[in-house]
């Protein structure tokens, strides 16, 4: 009987862990024509941000606060980062510093542009 109870507890823990993973969101930001699109996103804590270089020249993503920095991304290469929050993360292309973006980790989780 004890092994059955132990197995049920293990199953419950695994179910809760998998249910939490299913709720995690992924937001894509495309790099194209020397811009990040969307340039600003509102996301919930735990969201994974994926930058995709859709441009025909290399780019790299770096946080202003130096909390992350991608390698140089060639065309169609990706870089991802999971954000904890709450807070605001400003970032830029380290090869083209005039390219900037912002991630606002606020729990709204819309993934879209500002205006919340």
TrEMBL record:
Cofactor note: Binds 1 copper ion per subunit.
Protein origin, superkingdom: Bacteria
Domain EfeO-type cupredoxin-like residues, every copy: 9-105
Localization: Periplasm
An example Gene Ontology CC term for this record: periplasmic space
Keyword tags: Copper, Electron transport, Metal-binding, Periplasm, Signal, Transport
Coiled-coil boundaries: none
Signal sequence residues: 1-24
Binding site for Cu cation: 59, 93, 96
GO molecular function: copper ion binding; electron transfer activity
Entry cofactors: Cu cation
Protein name (database record): Plastocyanin
């Amino acid at each position: 009987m004890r092994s059955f109870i132990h197995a049920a507890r293990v199953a419950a823990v695994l179910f809760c862990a998998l249910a939490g993973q299913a709720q995690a969101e992924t937001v894509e930001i495309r790099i194209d024509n020397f811009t990040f699109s969307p340039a600003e996103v509102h996301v919930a804590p735990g969201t994974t941000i994926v930058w995709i270089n859709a441009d025909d020249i290399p780019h790299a993503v770096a946080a202003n606060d130096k909390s992350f920095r991608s390698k140089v991304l060639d065309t169609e290469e990706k870089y991802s980062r999971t954000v904890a929050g709450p807070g605001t993360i400003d970032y830029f292309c380290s090869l083209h510093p005039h390219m900037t973006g912002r991630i606002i980790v606020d729990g709204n989780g819309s993934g879209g542009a500002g205006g919340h």
